[in-house]
Amino acid sequence: MKSKDLQKLVLSKYENGDSASKIFNDSNGSVSYHTIRRWCKMIRERGSIDLSHPPGRPPIVRTKVMIRK
To answer: Which terminus of the chain is more exposed, N or C, with fewer CB under 10 A?
Structure first.
C-alpha cells in the first residue's frame, strides 16, 4: 500500500471510533505505532492527515557542476 492509502485507512478507522492501538493491530505492522499515533493526533487537531512537507533531510542537488566541486 502507498502512504496515502494507509493514511486514508487510518483516517477512516479513526473516524469510526477505533483507537490507535486497534488500528495498529489491524494494519499488521505496515505502519509503526508511533506513526499511527502521530496521524491520530493530526486528525484530532487539524481534521485530516496533511503533511506540510515530507519528513527527513532535503534532497541534495546532484548536477555535474556540483559533483566536480
So the answer is: C
Provide the 3-class DSSP secondary structure of residue 26: helix
Give the type of residue at 69: K
Number of neighbours of residue 33 by Cβ within 10 angstroms: 14
List the grid coordinates of 47: 481534521
Cell 477512516, residue?
A: 12
Q: What is the pTM of this model?
A: 0.68
The tens digit of pLDDT for each residue in 15-60 reads: 999 999 999 999 888 889 999 999 999 998 888 887 666 677 877 7
Per the CB < 8 A criterion, the answer to whether 49 and 11 are in contact is yes
